[in-house]
Amino acid sequence: MTHSKILRSSLFLLALGFSSQFAVAQKGEIESQTYEILKDKSIEFAPADRVFDKVQPVKGETGKKKVSYQIIDPEINMASPKLTPAVAASSDEQSRKDEPDVLNNYVKAGGGNYGRFLGELFVGGRPKEDLAYTVQLKHLSAANGPVDGKNSANAATGFKIGGKYIREKYKVDAGFNFDRKNYYFYGYKPQPDGVVVDRDTIRQTLNQFGFNLGFENTDASVLVDYSVKTSLNSLKDRYNASEIDWGTNLTASVPISETFFALLEADAYVSQRVDYFTYNRNLFRVKPTFKYVNDMFSVSAGINAVNETDSQLDINRTKAFPAVNLDVTPISGVHIFAGWNGDIVRNTLKSMLSENQWLGPNVLVMNTEKTSDISAGVKGETGTGINYEGKVAYTSYRNFYSYNNSLSDTSRFSAIFDPGKTKVLTISAQAGYNFNELFKTSLKANFFDYAVDKVEEPWHRPDLTLNWFNALTISKKLFVTADFYILRGLKAKNFQTGEVTKLPVIADLNLKIDYLLTRNFSAFVNLNNVLGKRYQRYQYYPQQGLNFIAGLSFSF
Asked: Is residue 84 pLDDT above 60, yes or no?
């Protein structure tokens, strides 16, 4: 769920980098997350032979690729896809990443309808054998939007710099990022002829800074494996709301025998949120577990103890949750897994704005208690490039939240928390296929059934999501990727009139075409919302119809 770390078949392969980038996806926004990953890969160091690498339940056969596509446990936001997302994977940069004298740096520029402009610069290097760095600057804007022209414009500018220093016995990585987003609350009621909305009254600006630092031992001869990461993030909006969040995460592993291990995860978060009131919100987590591994199965069991405080809401409580996970391999390449877990999921102003940027002032922010999460499933891969996973989870929550248009201003959203017990049944399935890196496809579906307690409905939460991704390498110069998304079951309510609306099913198709003109130059075209539906992910906020960006990229 939203920030939970579920320990499953492999040990400590947890993404504990809580310096996650703040990304509020606008309709038509074309991100470059895949480029970022690829660039980082191109200068990545080979992983060290670490002690906890020995505790994998099943060791892959030499020469066989690991499955790169896997189900991500649905977050509290219920796996709502980023509509008109980055159309990722194949690109001119990707096609050249394995060639000799590869050109990893690039600058690109493009434009499109709705007054769109895209500019991006990426520079990465490895000045020394044990040192690598990346720098990225990006700007994406639209001068007009789907409602009243400039009143629904948007702009996003981001800057990131990161570095890694790897020695024989340790690794240090650090990064800094800055994001600025400007957009407008254009979900207001239609105005009579001659009435002009003052843009200054509906404008929102978000500024976010982040810094992260990590240290990890890579000495295989050391008995204790450990990793420490810390991050500091700040956020401020145009209406004097702000948040400072500092988080530190520790993981450690101690082998007791060849098959038995003692594990520890510890997190500490100290944050302050300023709005109409000042909130000091802290959370501390300690999760000791023991894990037994052999060639047939792995089992881990422990306790997840969490303490949370909130000065304004007068909260100071400590809860203990189970942390039990089992992974069985009856035959090679097939895993049957099950788990019983619980946690307190951190909700912050930053995390909630990343889900819904239309939040109004003084929005209520509380943590969500995941009292019990019972799950089971099967996953596997074949030697023919097919991988699959199916999972069923039954989860109980307290303070389960959803979003709906607020009573005082329907163009702004409030967070609505259910103080009772909310139960959610989640059925997830996915399958992927890779053919010699020439064709990749993956299909994932999530079904959700909600049983809320003290609230009327889980407003704006889907009961079905479907994501279908495809990447095709037509030649050494031509690459095509496609994303198709379906989102169903959204309900909204106007609290002023009492009217409940079932929003239409969202279907969103996005295409990206890259063509390598020369070794240095390539052309790209991104087509978003090809079906041209002006759907509403959130009530009163229709999205842009068919929109595109075309441009050139220069690699060096």
From this structure: no
